[in-house]
Amino acid sequence: MGKTTLAQNLVASHFKHFGYYNWDNRQDRRDIMRSNWPGNADLIILDEIHKYKKWKSLVKGEYDKLKDRYRFLITGSARLDLYRKGGDSMLGRYHYFRLHPFSVAELTGDESLPDIFDEIPIHSQNIQKLLLSLDKFGGFPEPFLKQNTRTLRRWHNEKVDRLFREDIRDIEPVRDIVHMQLLGDILPERAGSLLSLNSLRENLEVSHRAVSNWMDILESFYYCFRIYPFATKKYRSLKKEAKLYLWDWSEIDQESTRFENCIASHLLKFVHFLQDWEGYRAQLYYLRSIEKKEVDFLVTIDEKPWFAVEAKIKDVNASPHLFYFRDKLNIPYSYQVIKQDGIDSFVNGVRVVSANNFLTGLV
Fold first, then answer.
1. Domain that holds residue 64
2. Could you tell me which of 300, 317, 158 has the C-alpha nearest to residue 229?
3. pLDDT of residue 8 exceeding 60
4. Most C-beta atoms within 10 A of its C-beta, which of 53, 141, 252, 329?
5. Half-sphere exposure of 137 (CA within 13 A, CB side)
6. 3-state SS track over the chain
């Protein structure tokens, strides 16, 4: 599915008429520069316009002149996020939304979102096949929709090659792109575990500063993301060590790690929705005490715990660490999310539930 189709599908249900313009198309570029918009449209979609050096001035001018007639939707790659952070201020003129891979709730069309600090709605639907497909092929449209292992392998190779040879080189002055690509090669093996920059530095035989910079770049280009431990005075916790996850979890070979990454990505999408759309100060953490008691995820609002999640493949026995942190931090809701279908029990205040039903309660 191309960007044009995706953008059209996203807005078709909300706008009767819209105009789509891609900066890579010659005629579209001419229309954009001439301010030639369709008269019956109520939305103008500008795709890849960040490739134009003065794009922010152009969009700001069109918005200020035509804001009573049109709404503008700007779409593009991760570079759009980087470009928007500098130059002319557009404060008050736009809202920024992060586009995530497909999720279970999105693919099922479920829109029953939980209220803040309420229990996550659990739905009993026969969608285990959908979850297994999402777990295997990831949430990016091309490999998920085709569901072909050969396409998936080609997607992985082409995505990584394009990331390092085109996207990063176009923007970031990385001198040692070869070692940075080697870093990208070993990160899928580190997914779901504590990320040690010193260990990466030793493996690659480069400086700590170089590895730290490369990790920041890979995060800014949406290759990976890090989750940090929740810090509080109520228990002794780790303070800095982050856990690593990939935006495309289909790169991970180990089943349990891939499933945990899939859950992490769903929760991150939910948290970003609460931030970008609802305006809440939501955050995603993990829990780990100095005694090495650990729970995979914690979602907070204004740094106040809302619900904790532990991801398991088959273990239906509620983790004792869920009880420990629930009591220690007064966490309202705790879930142990199982990849196996047909699981739903309530054990001493902890909901042990199948992932396909739990994930429909998110976004």
1. 3-84
2. 300
3. no
4. 252
5. 24
6. CCHHHHHHHHHHCCCCCEEEEECCCHHHHHHHHCCCCCCCCCEEEEECHHHCCCHHHHHHHHHHHHCCCCEEEEECCHHHHHHHCCCCCCCCCCCCCCCCCCCHHHHHCCCCCCCCCCCCCCCCCCCHHHHHHHHHHCCCHHHHHHCCHHHHHHHHHHHHHHHHHHHHHHHCCCCCHHHHHHHHHHHHHHCCCECCHHHHHHHHCCCHHHHHHHHHHHHHCCCEEEEEECCCCCCCECCCCCEEEECCHHHCCCHHHHHHHHHHHHHHHHHHHHHHHHCCCEEEEEEEECCCCEEEEEEEECCEEEEEEEEECCCCCCCHHHHHHHHHHCCCEEEEEECCCCCEEEECCEEEEEHHHHHHHCC
pLDDT digits (tens, 9 = 90+) for 32-73: 999 999 999 989 999 888 888 888 889 889 999 999 999 898
Number of domains in the chain: 2
Residues 22 and 125 occupy one common structural domain: no
Q: CA 361, 255, 298 angle in degrees (round to 5)?
A: 40
pLDDT of residue 359: 96
Q: Which of 30, 49, 84 is the last residue of a domain?
A: 84
Q: What is the pTM of this model?
A: 0.85
**Are 16 and 79 members of one domain?**
yes
Residue 6: pLDDT band (50, 70, 90) is very low
238 with 354, same domain: the answer is yes
CA distance 83 to 89: 12
* Same structural domain, 207 and 240: yes
**Amino acid letter, 317:** N
Give yes or no: residues 65 and 200 share one domain: no
